[in-house]
Design goal:
Elements lengths: L10 E3 L5 E3 L4 E8 L3 E7 L9 E2 L2 E3 L6 H13 L7 E9 L4 E9 L12 E8 L10 H13 L4 E6 H5 L10 H18 L1 E2 L9 E2 L2 E6 L12 E5 L4 H15 L4 E5 L3 H5 L6 E3 L1 H8 L2
Parallel strand pairs: 3-8, 10-13, 10-15, 13-14, 15-16
Antiparallel strand pairs: 1-2, 3-6, 4-5, 4-9, 7-8, 7-12, 11-12
Length: 288
Amino acid sequence: MLLHRTDGDGWLDCSCGRRHWGRLGAAGLLLVSLDGRVLLQHRAVWSHEGGTWAVPGGARSSTERPVDTALREAAEEAGVHPGDVEPVFAVVDDHGSWSYTTVVAHTGRTVETRPADPESVELRWVPLDDVSSFPLHPAFDAAWPQLRDQAMRRLALVVDAANVVGSRPDGWWRDRLAANRRLRDALVVAADRGFPAEELGLPANWWWPGIRLVVEGQARELEPVRGVEVLPAPRDGDTLIAQTVDNLVREHADDHIVVVTADRLLRGRLAPRVHVVGPRTLLRLLER
């Protein structure tokens, strides 16, 4: 087994008065199975806070986003293939001059894991309710209550395409299908990047949503793509959005549901627990 090196390796004297590993910050992956277990790593004694339990993670390189670092480290230290997991949300411990990002990902299949480098003494699938009984790395222990609270949840983002497209006079009326296609493609890019939680009224720091784009009229011909489910409305989009949200509330009671629309009548048809943001918020996020 080999130690992997990046240009971010090294200690940083942080403004908080402590030294942290990762000159450019660090990240780790908390992998959650759909039957309510998480993958914990028993850290080698020689590592920082050695002998404790936490998640696979390490220093971020100059070419990586935190989610990229988390996936790479899980592959290097635990043999987790990135294609077997789905990032859902992230919690950032930000010290100003240094930060650690815990990326929470779900997996619906049996993921084979193994200590793949010397930093892992043991890997173990642990029920969520048993995690706190382990001698945890102090930083992971501090973050665990928030991670535990959100661990099984996802974000469903339901977009009223006609309302969003029609919210700015960019010539969409000349080709409604093309305008909806531009919106769909921008959503794909944003979904890969992740959405800031604060902008959507959610806990944690970042979310990677499952997106449902409700289209109507000429835009019903819009093709679905990976990352965005396109729902063509047989009649009016509002009815399909309300039905879609009702199904999500009933079938995914713990998930976060955010609807993007400025339609006041539609807002009144949605369950109280559904969070609503306007088209301007979404468009601002897409333009980042």
